[in-house]
Amino acid sequence: MAFEWTEAMSTGVEALDNEHRTLIAWVNRLEEATAAGRAEGELLRVLAFLGTYAKQHFAHEEACFLSHQCPHSAANRTAHEAFVATFTRIKADCEARGVTEAKARELHAFRGDWLVSHILNVDTALKPCVK
Fold it and tell me: In CATH, what number is assigned to the domain containing residue 64?
């Protein structure tokens, strides 16, 4: 299932919303590769991009939460730390044991579900704080 950015995901900061769109597009790229039978070749590329991009995005987002004095800043940072730990485990498993279609599906489901849930339930808490 492809994930889609909607206006309900708006944080009030256009740059963050654009970063969320990019993250969702890359998660969907993995699903497309899996459906086309190219998951094994694509997974490591997607993992490399998402690992780097997510860390940059998280840093930017956390700075926005702090600069707008959003009371959900600590919860946002904690959620990011938990994500990075799980993502790192999945990536290490793929590097150690090889890439499989099942691992690609696991990553797509984890990444997409987490991302959409996080945006809707945590990131959107920034919107009322943006002046």
Answer: 1.20.120.50
Domain that holds residue 119: 12-129
**103 φ, ψ (degrees, to nearest 5):** -65, -35
Distances from the Cα of 83 to the Cα of 17, 55, 114, 128, angstroms? 19, 10, 8, 24
Angle at 64 between CA 58 and CA 67, to 5 degrees: 140
Name the nearest CA neighbour of 76 among 36, 126, 40.
126
Please report whether residue 5 resides in a domain.
no
- Tally the domains of the chain: 1
| 80 residue type, one letter | H
Q: What is the pLDDT of residues 4-47, one digit of tens each?
A: 889 999 999 999 999 999 988 888 887 787 778 776 777 788 88
Give pLDDT tens digits for 80-123: 998 888 888 888 888 888 877 777 777 767 776 788 889 999 99
Let me know if residue 1 belongs to a domain. no
Question: Residue 64: how many CB atoms within 10 A of its CB?
Answer: 21
**What is the C-alpha to C-alpha distance for residues 45 and 106, in angstroms, rounded to an integer?**
16
